[in-house]
Every structure is written in structure tokens, then in C-alpha cells.
Amino acid sequence: VEAVHLIADGKAPRIPQPKEGATYEGIQKKENAEISWDQPAAALHNWIRGHDKVPGAWATIDGQVVTFYGSSLLDASVPAGQELAIKGASRPGLVTKNGLVIFGNDGKMVLVRNLQFEDGKMIPASKYFSADETTALELTEEEKKMAEDIR
Questions:
Q1: Would 12 be classed as within a structural domain?
Q2: Spatial separation of the C-alpha atoms in residues 40 and 104, rounded to whole Å
Q3: Is the residue at 140 inside a domain?
Q4: In this structure, is residue 112 part of a structural domain?
């Protein structure tokens, strides 16, 4: 109550916060969010998670910047998947049915669920190798009839 009265009367002490020990970090920039691969899996996960959504932790894959989103630590046996070379990584990642598995320098794994390309296109990491494929929708005779009825 006394503090409230001091503020209301304009008599509360004003002590400027010292700059030393301040924890404010400036706005993160994309160029500072590149993934450093010589770290344990937990540090990779924290780096990706800490930069999720802005600015987004990134690495170079096939000559283009790819941003990683939605990481989680993976505590299981190494899943089956298609290898994906990542610039700077000591071991290739694995594109699996659940996402992209990356490896820390401790041999442990991190699962990344989504990837975003430089053009802004975001895909599930599990669809990395099928991202360029387009499939045509083919209707059965019954579905064609239903589509015609709807029109």
C-alpha cells in the first residue's frame, strides 16, 4: 500500500536499470541462424526450436537455403529412410515417413517435421524427395457421374 501511495504522490524512488548484466538480445537475423552441425542432438534441437518461426534455423541442401521447423528429439533406433546430404553435417540426414532425421555429433537424433525453401514454399519434411512430383486426380466412373450430378 505504501508503494502505491508513493507512486500516486509522485515520490517513488526512480532507479535506472544498469546496463551491466542486462539480458536483452537484439532482433535475430536470418544470417545468424545457420545451423552449426558440430553439436550434440539436444543443442541442434534447441537451436531449431529457439529460431522457430522467426528467423528460422537453416542449412544448405542441394545449393539452396532450407529452413527447418518443428523439431523434436528422437529416442529410438535409426529409422529407415532416404539419405539427404546437408552441407556441413558430418552425417547425411534421413528423409523418413515422419520427417527429416538429423544427427548430432553425439550420434543422437532430431526429427524435423517441416522444411521451407527460399521461394517461401513449405512442405512436410517427409515429402522432400516427392516435392516436385504432381499427381493427377483420376476419378472412377461412379465419381465422374457424381461430379457431373453436382455440376
A1: no
A2: 4
A3: no
A4: yes
Domain count, the chain: 1
State the pTM of this model: 0.70
Per-residue pLDDT of the chain (151 residues; tens, 9 = 90+): 999 999 999 999 988 878 887 776 667 788 889 999 999 999 999 999 988 888 899 999 999 999 999 999 999 899 999 999 999 998 999 999 999 999 999 999 999 999 999 998 999 999 998 855 555 567 788 888 888 888 8
CA nearest to 103, candidates 118, 131, 81, 123? 81
CA distance 130 to 128: 6
| Structural domain containing residue 60 | 29-134
> Are 27 and 55 within 8 A, CB to CB?
no
